[in-house]
Design a protein that fits this description.
Oligomer: heterodimer
Number of strands of chain A: 2
Shape of chain B: globular
Radius of gyration of chain B: 22 Å
Strand content of chain B: under 5%
Helix content of chain B: over 70%
Order of helices and strands of chain A: HHEEHHHHHHHHHHHHHHHHH
Distance between the termini of chain A: 41 Å
Number of helices of chain A: 19
Largest sheet of chain A: 2 strands, antiparallel
Helix content of chain A: over 70%
Radius of gyration of chain A: 21 Å
């Protein structure tokens, strides 16, 4: 018996290999060194890995521009501009998340490379999901991502809330993974393949007389993704987990995890099951309305920053799903733009949330933000910009992103979807605005000035600059994301 | 030859630069204020230059001049696109004038740097709305205006400023949400019909054909946003609390200027772009306008303080403007545009006067006033003149607008015009009654001590009085510029069956 090794395009796999290698390097160092390795060494390793991935994606982008897309590893990995763009987004989020973690470790007095290693692995899983062209690879990426997250959430062993939310996420995540693999099995049963291209080909050239198996399979896979992107009705874990986990990680949910999960969702729904659009669209519409409505209505009742942001991302993920609902090239482009630009914004927001909460990382009451403008005017102004961006104020990426998905939705003929989304955005705006006014509220007591460490400064600066610069002139990023998604239908 | 677009870009960008400079200088005593005054004074000069050099006969520009268009993002259809016509130039002038005189007449030294920066942002965004020649660009500025309003209300407003700001924000933001959907729908329809990249250019969208039913829905989307902003009954309920809680300068800007965004948008977009809907929506909108006129007049009689009184009298006046905008006649629409300018000028004056009174006594509750004529004769004199202008006394500018609106509407919708005439009578009644209660009668001990307007205060309102008289006697230069643009717009909307 001989083992056939399929031809592999290593350049296509390089981003995944780079982050995994960096993670393994940190793992080996931790295991072999007698002393705990310095946090800054771990941070720099991860940052360099992230930058290397960014450089690689640049090379990949130009190569793809010249020679076109292809599949590799026996058709299991797809090498296309969409995957490359999502990978670049994940790399940026990886760098920012690691920098967030750096300052957090300093505040908490945690030394070591475990956090960076796990974030690198999670990013690797997300990259794999973004490039997957086979349900098995999607599952592989999902598991790499999830297992890293389970450990990360429970990272702070001294905090009970951390362990509790890890247990919650682990149990639900385990179920989600099991449900996903069951969905994969049923889809395989219905179509005879797990390869996304082949599924699309099979469904395009055959008419299923009894589509029950496929419906069940597709539905179960969808459940797993809806869980990962915090869309209603599988969002219940989000506020508790956000509150309990280390703050730098909360930012990773709506950036690294989102990029991987939404990319895979686009590939499964739009590429593989594109011919079944009329079947899954109503289902999606239900999810979108539920996410936007519950997210918006619950956001305005929160008095805790992290819970507020958790519910807010439920609403935001409803918006992203709108782009996938459209299923058109412009819809997928809008989704891509949304996910890629939301990452830096949400990571910068959580950088400030972590900083304001201070050592202990447990008090996130919105009242702590009163008079932040007195303690540090620049930080307050940055947070205001970031919050207004998430609200969707013009001249920020938040507006451009929301506008893009709305245009795609209306282009696909869904007026009600657009109306519901806008009303949800208006309701959620209340919460963001109230938070923003708190920053400038007058306080009687004199508050100590808040010093911003360098890593947080980089993350916040990058987030604010991205949202304003790209927000004012979105031309470049929108054309990149439409270029990357031209081939979707 | 079209004029260079540099002037409009200057008009648009200067306030933002001024705001940034004011923020940088916010710790220096008075420097930020000076920057703001200079910026808005330059804006006034620029806007007057643009208004008087504007030509309506640029070939192929449909009455627009100074036009420029740069596409910023093709996939999003986002563009930098400016142009003015005979309708917008006067609102551009009004924008600059309002902010300048709000700064001069209602100076507030609490955290002054940030306050004037917000006012300059409001000036810039409002300029953006009136200069925008692209629906998406208009929407962006229309939405962005909420931020300065919201923050001025919460930080410098009255005790219930926060609650009022939230109410104001929710109303306007929800309203504009419907408009955004309508705008994107129009853009997408244009692409489906003509192909090419997504665009929201005013001229391009104007060629899009929509079915009768669809255009009614689109009209509704626009109308909700603009009816909130104007306000028009029944979406006016945010305005009394907002006008009551607003700090003086923001109050001037919101009542004199931002309300015009509503009626301007209604005319330019909801009427100008959706001819198919007009026959159906006109009776509905005219009826709402009549209700606004009469309801505003009635409630103004019962208003407890001068600020809510102005809110309701504004509702009544905005009803008149809406009547003209929806009349479907050239003359009525012309009158509406003229009245927008005038109501702006008059409201600046009246709101400033109310602000002066608030500096002298804690509140402006009508029941606690009385006999003010004796201690403050000049104040009472200016107030009387502004009041007479609002009531539409011939010889003052208010008369021209109201008269044209009534004549125009009478030609197309006689019954509604007849009902609106009741409003003219009612406005005389509620103004005179409020005047009588505040200025006539016996003066009590505290009010008798009140000083009359200072020369500084006088300097900020007297220009309004002069303008009102001048425009009342010589409306020609303004009206002639309005009339070409309005004729083009109205004949585009209903080529046949328009009475003169």
């Amino acid at each position: 018996m001989t083992l056939h090794v399929p031809a592999i395009n290593y350049l296509a796999l390089l981003p995944f290999l780079l982050v995994t290698a960096a993670a393994l390097k940190l793992l080996m160092l931790t295991a072999l060194m007698r002393r705990r390795i310095a946090t800054s060494l771990a941070t720099w390793t991860a940052v360099v890995a992230g930058l290397a991935v960014l450089g690689t994606t640049l090379v990949q982008w130009y190569e793809l521009d010249r020679y076109g897309s292809s599949v590799t590893a026996a058709g299991a990995i797809v090498y296309d501009p969409f995957g490359v763009l999502m990978t670049a987004g994940i790399a940026v989020s990886l760098i920012l998340a690691v920098l967030n973690g750096h300052d957090w470790q300093r505040r908490e007095g945690i030394v070591g490379a475990e956090y960076q290693m796990l974030v690198l692995l999670a990013a690797g899983g997300a990259i794999l999901m973004a490039q997957a062209n086979d349900l098995i690879i999607v599952f592989l990426g999902l598991e790499i991502l999830s297992i890293a997250l389970y450990c990360l959430i429970a990272f702070n062993r001294r905090r009970q809330a951390s362990a509790e939310s890890a247990m919650k996420y682990f149990l639900l995540g385990g179920f989600a993974a099991a449900i996903f693999i069951y969905g994969v099995a049923l889809t395989y049963g219905a179509t005879g393949t797990t390869n996304l291209t082949n599924i699309a080909y099979f469904l395009g050239s055959n008419h299923l007389l009894h589509p029950g198996l496929l419906l069940a399979g597709g539905g179960l896979m969808l459940v797993a993704f809806v869980f990962k992107v915090e869309a209603a009705p599988f969002h219940f874990w989000a506020p508790d987990v956000y509150e309990g986990e280390p703050t730098p990680l909360s930012g990773a949910h709506a950036s690294i995890v989102w990029a991987g999960a939404f990319a895979a969702l686009v590939r499964i729904m739009v590429v593989a099951l594109g011919s079944q659009q009329s079947t899954w669209r109503p289902l999606f519409f239900g999810l979108i309305v539920a996410s936007i409505a519950t997210g918006a209505l619950l956001t305005i009742q929160q008095s805790n920053a992290k819970r507020l942001l958790a519910y807010a991302s439920v609403t935001q993920s409803g918006f992203v799903l709108l782009g996938i609902w459209a299923g058109t090239a412009s819809g997928v482009a809008a989704t891509t733009f949304y996910v890629v630009t939301y990452g830096p914004v949400v990571l910068a927001t959580f950088a400030i949330v972590g900083l304001v909460s201070g050592p202990g990382d447990s008090d996130h009451a919105l009242t702590r933000y009163q008079g932040l403008s007195r303690r540090n005017p620049w930080l307050a102004a940055s947070l205001a910009v970031l919050l207004l961006s998430q609200l969707g104020v013009p001249f920020t990426t938040g507006f451009d992103a929301k506008f893009g998905v709305l245009a795609a939705t209306l282009d696909a003929g869904n007026v009600w979807g657009a109306v519901v989304a806008m009303m949800g955005a208006a309701v959620a705006a209340f919460a963001y605005l109230r938070w923003t006014t708190t920053l400038y509220a007058d306080v009687d007591e004199t508050l100590a000035p808040l010093v911003v460490p360098w890593a947080t400064r980089v993350v916040v600066g990058f987030g604010v600059l991205t949202t304003v610069v790209v927000g004012v002139d979105p031309g470049l990023i929108t054309s990149i994301s439409s270029h990357a998604t031209l081939l979707f239908q | 030859m079209m004029h260079s677009s540099v002037w409009l870009s200057l008009l648009l960008l200067l306030p933002f630069v001024g705001a940034a400079v004011a923020l940088v200088l916010r710790r220096r005593q008075g420097a930020a204020y000076l920057v703001a005054v200079v910026t808005s004074a330059i804006e006034v000069a620029l806007s007057l230059f643009v208004a008087f050099s504007y030509k309506s006969t640029v070939a192929g520009a449909q009455g627009f001049d100074f036009a420029v268009r740069h596409v910023l993002s093709n996939p999003l259809g986002l563009a930098y696109d400016l142009a003015v016509d005979g309708i917008s130039i006067w609102l551009v002038v009004l924008t600059a004038v309002t902010v300048l005189f709000a700064l001069l007449g209602a100076r507030d030294r609490r955290d002054e740097g940030s306050y004037v920066a917000w006012q300059l942002l409001l000036l810039g965004c409002s300029m953006g709305c009136f200069l925008a020649h692209d629906l998406l660009e208009f929407f962006i500025f229309f939405d962005l205006i909420l931020l300065p309003c919201y923050f001025m209300l919460t930080r410098w407003g009255g005790l219930q400023g926060r609650a009022a700001a939230m109410k104001f924000f929710l109303y306007t933001f929800l309203g504009s949400a419907f408009m955004l959907v309508a705008i994107i729908y129009l853009g997408v329809t244009h692409v489906h019909e003509f192909g090419g990249a997504l665009t929201f250019a005013y001229g391009a969208i104007g060629q899009t054909t929509t079915s009768h039913v669809v255009s009614i829905w689109l009209f509704a989307g626009f109308a909700v946003a603009f009816a909130v902003k104007a306000p028009i009954w029944p979406l006016h309920t945010w305005s009394p609390s907002t006008y009551e809680q607003a700090p003086a300068a923001a109050g001037v800007e919101m009542s004199a200027l931002l309300s015009k965004l509503g009626t301007y948008g209604l005319l330019r977009f909801a009427v100008g772009l959706l001819p198919a809907a007009q026959s159906t929506v006109r009776p509905v909108m005219l009826t709402l306008a009549i209700i606004s006129i009469l309801y505003g007049a009635l409630v103004a009689c019962t208003a407890k303080n001068l600020r809510t009184f102005i809110a309701y009298s504004s509702l009544s006046q905005m009803g008149f403007i809406t009547l003209g905008v929806m009349s479907g006649s050239v003359i009525g629409t012309q009158g509406a545009v003229f009245l927008m300018l005038n109501h702006g000028l008059i409201t600046i004056g009246i709101f400033l006067l109310v602000g002066y009174l608030e500096r002298r006594r804690a509140n402006v509750t009508i029941a606690e006033l009385g006999g003010l004529q004796r201690p403050m004769p000049v104040y009472a004199g200016i107030f009387t003149l502004l009041m007479l202008a609002t009531m539409g006394l011939p010889g003052l500018s208010g008369f021209v607008g109201e008269y044209l609106i009534l004549i125009g509407t009478f030609g197309t919708h006689a019954w509604w015009a007849l009902a609106a005439t009741l409003g003219v009578v009612a406005s005389a009644a509620y103004w005179l009654w409020a005047y009588q209660r505040s200025f006539h009668g016996a003066v009590d001990a505290t009010n008798a001590e009140l000083p009359d307007v200072s020369s500084r205060e006088r300097a900020a309102v007297v220009p309004m009085v002069v303008l009102i008289v001048v425009l009342g006697v010589f409306p020609g230069p303004v009206l002639s510029r309005i009339s070409t643009a309005v004729t083009a717009l109205v004949t585009h909307v209903s080529p046949s069956g328009v009475s003169k």
